[in-house]
Structure formats: C-alpha cells, structure tokens
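Would you mind writing out a protein's amino acid sequence and the numbers that encode its backbone to help me picture the idea?
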Amino acid sequence: MVARGLRALRGALRGAAGSGGRRLSTRPARVPAADYQDAIRTLNTLQTNASYLEQVKRERGDPRAQLEAMRGFLERSGLQVEDLDRLNIIHVTGTKGKGSACAFTERILRGYGLRTGFYSSPHLVQVRERIRINGQPLSKELFSKYFWLVYRRLRGTKDESQANMPAYFRFLTIMAFHVFLQEKVDLAVVEVGIGGAFDCTNIIRAPVVCGVSSLGIDHTSILGDTVEKIAWQKGGIFKPGVPAFTVPQPEQPLEVLRDRARECGCPLYLCPELDAFEAGTRVLELGLAGSHQRSNAALALQLSRTWLQRRGYEAGTDVLQDVLPGAELSAQRSVPLAPTFCPSDAMIQGLRDTEWPGRTQVLPHGPVTWYIDGAHTTSSIQACVRWFRQAALNEDKPQDGSEVRVLLFNATGDRDTAALLKLLLPCHFDYAVFCPNFTEVSVAANSDQQNFNVTLENALTRCVENQKTWTRLMEEKGGPWLPAPLEVGGLLQPDPLRGALLLVPPAERPLNSTSLVFPCISHALQWITQGRDPHLPLPASKVGAHPHPVATSGAVLLQEAAAIRVLVTGSLHLVGGVLKLLDPTLSQ
C-alpha cells in the first residue's frame, strides 16, 4: 500500500510540476559557458559523482585517507598545504553555535579595518553565501571566475590514477582557499563542515587560533553516538602550539577536549561567561537574539583578541594584555580559565552589528510574524523554544485575543525527530505544518537549492512520519485534539482549480487533526499566510481553501486571526527556502 501510494504521489507531482522537471544524471558534466548558473549546475553534479561514492566506500575504514585525498585535490588545483599558512586562519568547530561564533568573530575583526574572508556552510539561498569577503557573499562574477578556474584545473589533471573529482563540499573548500589567497584577505574565518579531525577543512596545518562551540549529539553515523566520541572528533582541529578556546562543556566531553589538546601540545582555555565582560552597568548588546548566543559571543571575543595579539595588531593597551600566561586553573576545572579583559569599542560594536540570517531571526510582516531559527539538535531546539517563547511573549497581544500559532518544521539525516518535536510541545501550537526542503514542487529552475542526494519520495515519507509523531505526541499530551492514525498510501489530494497540493491522511475524523503535510515550502506558506503576508507574492490562482476539512477550517481561523505567529525551525535548508520566498532580494 505504501509503495502504491508513493507511486501515485510521484505521478501527481510530476503532473503538477509540468514539463519543466529535470532528470538527474551522474554522467560527467561538459564544461559549459562560464556563467553563474552554469557554474552552479556543474557544481551540483559533484553531489552524485559516481567515482566519489566509490572513494567514500574505500575510505570509510581509514578516515585519514580522506585528508590525504583532500591534500591531493588541493595540489591538483594548484595550491600546496603550506600556501594556506598565509591566510591567518581562525578555525572553529562545534555542534551548535559554531556558525554564529564565526559570524561574531568575523564582524569584530572587520571592525578593525581588516579584510576578512569567511567560509561557512550550509548556504540558505545561494551557494555563494558560503564564501564571503568583508561579510558579503562572493559576487556572481567572482564565484564564476574562481569556480571555473578550480574546476578546469582539477578536470584537466584527471588520469587513470586520479580519475575522480572532489565532492561538493571538498570542492567548495578548495575554491574558498583560492578565493581568499587571490583576493588577499588579511584573515580567514573557517567553519568546520562536520566533526573536525577528518573534516576536509582540517588540512589547515597552522591556524592562528582555534575555537570549539557548544558540543552535543549530531551526525552520529559519522562522528559517533556519544558526546565523548563527538568531542574526540572536534578536538582533532587542535594544533601544536596554537591556542584554542572552548565554551563551557559538560565534564566528560571537556575532559576529552583537554586530553586531545595535551596530546598535541595545544594550549586549551575555557571562555569565561559573557557576564564577566559586562563590568558595572555596561551590558553587551548582541546582534543575534537568544540567551544561547552569549556563549558564542564570549568565544568570539577570545578568538578575535587572541588573533589580534598573535598578529601584532594594536588595539589599545587596555585590550592587548597577555592572555595566555595569566590563565587560572582551579580545583574544579580540568581546563584553565582564560582571563577577562575590557572589550574594545570595535569589539562592542562588532557584537552589536553581527548579522547571521536564519538564526533567531524575527520578520514582522503585517499580521504575520515569522520566527526563524535553524535548530536541528536537542540542545539547539531547547534554545530555540526558550527564544521563541520569550520573543512571542514580548509581542503585543491582540485586543480580541485571536492569535494563531503555527509550527513549520522539517528535519533530515539521522536526527531523532521525535525527540526534537517533543521539545516543541510547550510552545502550544495551534497547527503543525510539515514539508520537504524544496521551495517548489519542481526544483529544476532553482539550481542553488538542488539536492541530488534526497528523492522527493523519501523527503515526503519523512514528513509524513514527522506528522505521525506529532499526532502521537499530542495524544500523549492529552490535549483536546485526538488525531486519527495516518497512512502513507492515498496521501495526495490535488486541487486543480486552486493549483495547490495538500497531503492529507485518509482519516475517518480528519477534523480532529491539527497537522498538515505539503509537498513544498511554497504551498505550505500559501496555506499558513492565507494571502495576509504583504511580502509573500500571491500565487496565480487562489489557494485560500482546500478540499480537506482540516485545511478549510484552519484557513478560516488564519484568515480571521488578528495575529499569526509562525515558528520555522529544524533544517537550515528549510529555513533557506522560507527566506528565499519571504525575501526575494536574497536571490538577486
């Protein structure tokens, strides 16, 4: 029945997408004319490179071979590992908050008049967001220039012994190094992709300083199923004689980090809480909302200050004192505590001016307010819930009290979505909406957000499983809603007159369900907003009503509510798709 339902679903979606669909191929791409969209399409072929998949199988038993392979790709592109020493790198890893810590650090150092490079992942809307110069994504022209430079060099050095091309993330990492060197940045902030020890960014041999943000459980199939195993992987970026800083961690993973640091002769220090920098009545204002950002900001202060000291930049005698020799080791700590200092004006301004889209971001759009936070681990979801509840409480309540709360959620990979959804229950959502990370049913015209490693069927099945989980959690909670069991078969209810697709369960009592599944982000947003978001372009055909009773009754509530508060969380790819639709300028 499941297979039959998915076959019907696939056929209906093909019909809805029209003839613009594109078959995926793993055949080597030809080298096309060097424009941006051609570059992105060619880059996407590296997601499913057949020879790379074979290489992964060979390397799985020997992770060190991954770094050797990366070194080979770098050399084929025209660089030596030693060339990276000129980039004055700040290397940052962690489970949650590492991107935010990098964003704080980059913004602080840019405030000193330094030319900064910043390499991060994933991107939200466009691939070029991953490589930034002075805080701005690489222009389409520069992206195309460096993409084809690196791609042609690697393609031109293929032979029988080197018949492969680097995979997507490896390629972009190599390209970022080329960009930063040729664009002559003063420093590069480099965020680790996954883990640390065997991440392809770890071919960096001589960073100026390293950082570790908060640790937790994520990517267990790659990094291990305990926080101690994950800490071992993260500590793999430590280098002899290179100072490293970590935010407060649970005792056991902190001890693993300490041992990893000692093994390689890396001086590791614990960041004081941000409170310690707020002397007297001064309160440090952060550009990123949420109490959990305070530890990321504290890490950024230590990383930026140490970088300035080690590179001899003057920033005032009250700032550039010796940090490391004065570190204190108490009986309660296995890692010495770095001393506090008086942040410079540039540091204070940098923390305040930091922007990092898709993380604790609020977008007020008329009666609809969007709360957007890409959180996909238990600890980050907990932080997201605290932030959302506080942010929603601070909003003015409608005088008539008619407020509707909606959750828009998706998660990918090996994450325990049941645990994540359970943590979201205290937010008291009126509706939970699930959809894949596809902006539209057909992604052929959106090369930046194509993912060849996930099929539509798998993505939709995952959404239905999430809906089932939410239904079960609501039943266990004992609320007023008693949803009926769901089945995958017979999901699709197309409405050709309105142009929207709604996935619904063949339940006998559908009005008892408070959750819906849509096949793409666009259709989900159309239902949630009911045409009331002035920033969201209306579809060519009206989607105000749906043939399913839950969607119809919910639409009435959404149309009449004085305020609609929508939390978008889970996958950063979902967040990116939502931002792309809510702010079309991000695609320009």
Q: What stands out?
A: DSSP finds 18 helices and 16 strands in the chain. The CA atoms of residues 366 and 533 lie 6 Å apart. The first strand starts at residue 89 and ends at 93.
